[in-house]
Specification:
The two termini are 34 Å apart. A 7-stranded mixed sheet has the order 1-7-6-2-5-3-4, with helices on both faces. Helix 4 links the parallel strand 3 and strand 4. It is an alpha/beta fold. The protein has one domain: Glycerol-3-phosphate (1)-acyltransferase (3-Layer(aba) Sandwich). The chain contains 10 helices and 7 strands.
Length: 245
């Protein structure tokens, strides 16, 4: 019962504060959109907004490792394992500008989804070839303009924590646009906020780790399937559930 009450309190807090933060985000957008073509300032504010929801839950002890490996000013294809909706908040803790690829339905959510529209994040409708083609074109445009793009190449959350096979889209883009791949590993979110659950699950240690970037020269000539499997192997080696098997 206590965990359920805590969960309800968190949801109410997010709902109420999202309205306020969206108004601030709208003001930031209006003041910066004319000179900040990649909307970096707005993304950084969005990062603060997201990370605030981690700070208000002391039971989630979130640490970041390897942030120094991110080369500021470099355009990356960023890829990560995916265990929980919490991964999105945790990834914002990097405080590094990028464009999300996310389900189209999320953009319709009041305040949070509207802010994603302001940020010009990239939407996709699962299972629709025309939407996939539009998403790939939008990603190419963002990468060409100097914006990194963040993918969860599994396509959906892993309830077991074991990293699912990677879809090829992110790696096709990395090869075509000649941008390095930045692998990210997230641990601990699966138990803090399991798939298909909104309940509070007590104290958990959560970690996001930036691995060494993979330069274009290392994968440019490889079949895209081999690139996907190589990056999956690099990420899986640092995922707790794989280490336990």
């Amino acid at each position: 019962m206590l965990n359920r009450l805590i969960s309800i309190s968190i949801i109410i807090f997010i709902g109420v504060t999202s309205a306020v933060f969206f108004l601030v985000a709208l003001a930031v957008w209006m003041l910066t959109v004319c000179f900040d073509r990649r909307l970096v300032v707005l993304h950084m504010f969005t990062s603060f907004w997201a990370v605030l929801y981690l700070w208000v839950v002391p039971a989630w002890q979130v640490t970041v490792a390897g942030r120094h490996r991110i080369r500021r000013g470099t355009t990356y294809m960023i890829v990560s394992n995916h265990q929980s909706q919490l991964d999105i908040l945790v990834a914002f803790k990097l405080f590094f500008p990028f464009k999300w690829v996310s389900k189209a339905a999320v953009f319709k959510l009041p305040f949070i989804g509207w802010n994603m529209v302001l940020n010009r994040y990239i939407r996709i409708k699962r299972g629709r070839k025309d939407s996939i083609a539009q998403m790939m074109k939008a990603c190419e445009e963002k990468l060409a303009a100097g914006s990194s793009v963040f993918f969860f190449p599994e396509g959906t959350r892993s309830s077991s924590g074991i990293v699912k096979p990677f879809k090829h889209g992110a790696f096709t883009l990395a090869q075509k646009m000649k941008v390095p791949i930045l692998p990210i590993v997230i641990n601990g979110t699966k138990n803090a906020l399991p798939k298909n659950s909104l309940n509070f699950h007590g104290r958990h240690a959560i970690n996001i780790r930036v691995l060494e970037e993979i330069p274009v020269e290392q994968f440019a000539a490889l079949p895209v399937g081999e690139v996907a499997e190589m990056v999956r192997g690099v990420i899986s080696a640092q995922v707790e559930e794989h280490r336990q098997n």
